[in-house]
Design goal:
Elements (H helix, E strand, L loop, with lengths): L6 H9 L6 E4 L15 H12 L10 E8 L7 H17 L8 E8 L3 H13 L4 E3 L6 H10 L4 E2 L6 H5 L3 E2 L7 H13 L4 E7 L2 H4 L1 H11 L4 E7 L7 H10 L3 E5 L4 H10 L5 E4 L6 H6 L8 E4 L9 H13 L8 H17 L8 H8 L3 E2 L7 E2 L17 E6 L2 E3 L19
Helix pairs in contact: 2-13, 3-13, 3-14, 4-5, 7-9, 10-11
């Protein structure tokens, strides 16, 4: 698992994880902040009510969706499910659910292992849901074949592995850990104009899988010199690797070490590296920025989302819903955004279906035309967005940048795609 390892420790500290098993959430079972009494809560509630619009409660029989989300084990993503819970409560109370039917999520807590993912998938299938909502399921290679056998669509979430990006029953609104890396490489070569890059990556199978995916993109985008610098995932001190980056003369350091970003960025600053820096999403977490001791300043990060803390209507709706219905302390990051946006996208498309949605009508609806994508670029599910990843419907990313310790988005309309540069997804 290449990305977001830093979330494990942070999330365990702030969210209060549930025990492994299955649970349900819907309009009547919100988890989190609506009952909290913090300073300014009245003003926040007023602002939230305004952005939510007029209440329209779903009163029909529930439409049940299954979900696996990894919240125990070595790597945890509780905010993915919390984002979905917040969106479900908003949809059920203000949008009338799906054609009057409230959305209900039957969730099973995974631990990132194939065995648990398969067990959870079988439990969910036995409950005969309408479809599966993707979340953060690292064990998706084991769970998705079970959904395929049961003829269930797999919709959205965070596609960490090639399986959800290529499965015939899968619909993905963005690519994480493939498309974002490729778009960052295009941005580096074409928009920043760099010619030499040092890639810092973990020396394990997951880390090494980055190289055949991103190196050809850098080259196609005009980068002529690439130096690969492996780092042990257990290394306490990346100073030698930072020194290699500095001595290489690279104009840009690409930092792809999920739970090592803070130390790596700090080390780069310590050795006097003055080139540009790009990182992956975990590198932009507030604790990582703080740990970098200024080394994160100026760093670029490709994101499939319009800035969540911005002033757009979607961003304000997301912020208000997360404050009202997600568990206190839930991280607002690309993971929680993906959980929230998945529910919003599913509600929008399934509301166009007459009668009870079936797997056939669900997939047909998504594959018909171009759709609005909550807090992201519009998507078209024609199998052409990302080469070799037929389930990916959108390959457009915005570039965030760290300025004075804060994530900013200099241009919310300057989308970058790897189309024409990315050689195709590999296993």
């Amino acid at each position: 698992m290449r990305r977001h390892i830093w979330l494990s420790a942070v999330a365990l500290a702030v969210t209060g994880l549930v025990a492994a098993g299955c649970s349900s959430s819907g309009s009547s079972s919100s988890t989190g902040g609506s009952s909290s009494t913090t300073a300014g809560s009245t003003a926040a509630a007023t602002a939230g009510s305004s952005v939510f619009g007029t209440a329209k409660k779903a009163t029909g029989t529930p439409y049940v969706f299954g979900m696996i989300n990894d919240e125990t084990g070595a790597v945890t993503f509780p905010e993915a499910r919390q984002g979905a819970i917040a969106a479900v409560n908003y949809v059920n109370n203000y949008l009338g659910g799906i054609n009057g039917h409230p959305i209900q999520i039957d969730s099973c807590i995974g631990d990132g292992t194939p065995a648990t993912a398969a067990r959870c998938a079988n439990q969910l299938v036995a409950k005969k849901p309408i479809a599966i909502l993707g979340a953060a399921d690292v064990g998706a290679p084991a769970s998705i074949p079970i959904y395929q056998h049961a003829n269930l669509a797999y919709l959205g979430g965070i596609p960490f592995t090639p399986v959800p990006e290529t499965a015939s029953n899968s619909v993905q609104f963005w690519s994480v850990s493939v498309g974002d890396n490729a778009a960052a490489a295009v941005y580096a070569g074409k928009k920043l104009g760099v010619k030499s890059v040092a890639i810092i990556y973990f020396s394990n199978p997951q880390g090494e899988s980055l190289l055949p995916q991103v190196t050809p993109v850098f080259k196609a985008a005009g980068v002529t010199t690439i130096k690969d610098i492996p780092l042990s995932p257990t290394s306490p001190d990346p100073s030698p690797q930072a020194a290699l980056v500095e001595s290489s003369g690279a104009q840009l350091a690409y930092v792809d070490v999920p739970n090592g970003c803070g130390n790596m960025l700090k080390a780069l600053k310590s050795v006097g590296f003055t080139g540009k820096i790009m990182g992956i999403d975990p590198c932009g977490a507030p604790p990582v920025i703080e740990a970098s001791a200024g080394g994160a300043n100026g760093m670029y990060i490709a994101s499939p989302f319009v800035l969540q803390s911005g002033t757009s209507h979607d961003a304000q709706l997301f912020q208000a819903a997360m404050k009202k219905w997600a568990a206190p302390g839930t991280l607002v990051d690309s993971i929680s955004t993906a959980g929230f946006a998945t529910v919003m996208n599913v509600q929008q498309v399934l509301s166009t279906i007459s009668g009870t949605p079936t797997t056939s009508s669900i997939l047909a609806a998504f594959k018909s035309g171009t759709h609005q994508n909550f807090l992201s670029h519009p998507y078209t599910c024609d199998g052409q967005a990302l080469k070799g990843a037929t389930a990916i419907c959108n390959d457009n990313y915005l570039m965030n940048q760290i300025e004075n310790g804060v994530i900013t988005q200099p241009d919310s309309t300057d989308w970058t795609t790897s189309k024409g540069y990315f050689p195709g997804i590999t296993g």
